[in-house]
Amino acid sequence: MENPSNTIYKVIQFLSKTPTILRMLLSGLEEQSIKTNEGPNTWSPFDVVGHLAYLEKTDWPIRIEIILSDKTDKTFAPINRIAHFELNVEKHIEQLLNEFETLRKENIQNLKSKDLTEAVLSKEGIHPSFGKVTLNQLLHTWVVHDLTHLNQIIRVLAKQRKRDVGPWIEYLSVLK
Predict the structure, then answer these.
(1) Which candidate, 119, 121, 146, 118, places its Cα nearest to that of 136?
(2) Alpha carbons 139 and 153: distance in angstroms, whole number
(3) Can you list the domains of the chain with their CATH numbers?
(4) Nearest to 104 by CA among 34, 11, 26, 35
(5) What element of type H or E holds 134?
(6) What is the DSSP string of 58-107?
(7) What are the angstrom distances between the C-alpha of 67 and each of 9, 24, 31, 64?
């Protein structure tokens, strides 16, 4: 696992950083910043953290186990991408950050406990939309999913200051 050229090492190296990055970005911010989104049908930083925590329970680890199982049917169940809205109504951002961090640590420990050789990484599951996908693809998608949502949070936080940057808006691509 210590070999930096190892795919799993690289995946785990990044996945383990996401909870810290989220905490550094969001912990201690006022609720208005945390719960502001970009408009109708968009997500706030609070929503994104709730979504990430939800998928730590219902997506990544389950799909990994399906791929690694001996079952003949390796079809993934569809994911409810908006279930977190109802589940997190009464929660505070610190609760979500703690929940996400705990779940992510458990999932990383689970990954580390597996013997994920190159042959194992080529094992397949069946995505409900895409068809056959490999474990390697799933793991890298997990990393890019994190990056996508980190980008989203940063964009939402930046856009909250759009009116205040004055003429510098021309140089700030995140605001366009």
Answers:
(1) 121
(2) 22
(3) 7-175 (1.20.120.450)
(4) 11
(5) strand 131-134
(6) HTHHHHHHHHHS--S--BPPPP-TTHHHHHTTT--HHHHHHHHHHHHHHH
(7) 19, 34, 40, 5
Cα torsion at 155, 160, 161, 164 (round to 10°)? Answer: 140
57 DSSP assignment: H
- Full-model pTM: 0.93
Beta carbons within 8 Å of 133's beta carbon, 6+ residues apart: 124, 125, 126, 127
pLDDT by residue (tens digit) across 28-67? Answer: 999 999 999 999 999 999 999 999 999 999 999 999 999 9
Beta bridge partners of 131: 127
How far apart, in whole angstroms, are the C-alpha atoms of residue 78 and residue 82? Answer: 12
- pLDDT, one tens digit per residue, over 113-145 is 998 988 999 999 999 999 999 999 999 999 999
